[in-house]
Design brief:
InterPro entries: C5_MeTfrase (IPR001525), SAM-dependent_MTases_sf (IPR029063). This protein has 62 residues and is mainly alpha-helical. It contains 3 helices and no strands. The protein has one domain. The chain is 55% helix and 0% strand. Helix 1 packs parallel to helix 2. The radius of gyration is 17 Å and the shape is elongated. The mean pLDDT is 91.
Length: 62
Amino acid sequence: MPDGTVKSLSIEGAAILQGFPNWYEFPPQAATAGSIIGYSVPPLFAAQLFTHIQKQLSGAIV
């Protein structure tokens, strides 16, 4: 925060930033839910990455 206060991000907020849909249900334990979010890959990033890799493997990108 501008005044130097540090706020923590909620599980719901972190899930939204990571691209989880609103309907996704996390375990009630914050540590477990945080691990799921922390180890996940945002779907849009994964799609872009795999599209790029496919193009490289097919020779479309040199």
